[in-house]
Amino acid sequence: MERSLEELEQIVRGQICRVCSDRKLDGSCGLEDPGTCALFSLFPQVARAIQATHSDDICDYVRAIREQVCTICQQQAADGSCETRDSVACALDAYLLLIVDAIEEATGRKFDRPVGSVAAQPVFPLRSN
Ligand code: SF4
Ligand code: SF4
After folding, report:
1. Ligand 1 centroid from CA 92, angstroms
2. Where are the domains of the chain?
3. 51 exposed, middle or buried (CB, 10 Å; 0-12, 13-18, 19+)?
4. Nearest-angstrom CA–CA distance, 9 and 22
5. Helix, strand or coil for residue 75?
6. Which residues partner with 29 through β-bridges?
7. Could you give the CA distance from residue 27 to residue 17 in angstroms, rounded to a whole number?
8. Are 65 and 119 in contact (CB under 8 A)?
9. Which residues have any ligand 2 atom within 6 Å of their CB?
10. What is the pTM of this model?
11. What is the per-residue DSSP string for 13-66?
12. 39-65, pLDDT tens digit by residue?
């Protein structure tokens, strides 16, 4: 199913912001500067990385995000570390399972992730190292 980038962003906003721990009671983003949310400030790259990955293993999506998004994110240090990620304050990292599911569902693509796989477990911050 073809979806524009704007449509995909609206779908992801609807599903992720409402469960995000940084969301305020009135529904707005609670970050001091909402523009720093890497999920949406880099959404075109996020969507491209996820759509170019075809796997039932969530680790492949983590790798794609690290390579295609974190490398251009201003919050990543030169050595590849990220304080925002380490403090579980990056919505993209913390909710990646839900983001992948939302984008795949919206584009009519769904992979069977066996029970017991990382992807079948509850949301938690993902680490690639
Ligand atoms: S931090 Fe990002 S995901 Fe969370 S409420 Fe703000 S814009 Fe939405
Ligand atoms: S994990 Fe860090 S480097 Fe990667 S997108 Fe989030 S804030 Fe940026």
Report:
1. 9
2. 5-110
3. middle
4. 18
5. coil
6. 23
7. 8
8. no
9. 38, 69-70, 73, 75-76, 82, 84-85, 90, 92-93
10. 0.86
11. HHHHTTT-TTB-TTSSB-SSSGGG-HHHHTHHHHHHHHHT---S-HHHHHHHHH
12. 999 999 999 999 999 998 999 999 999
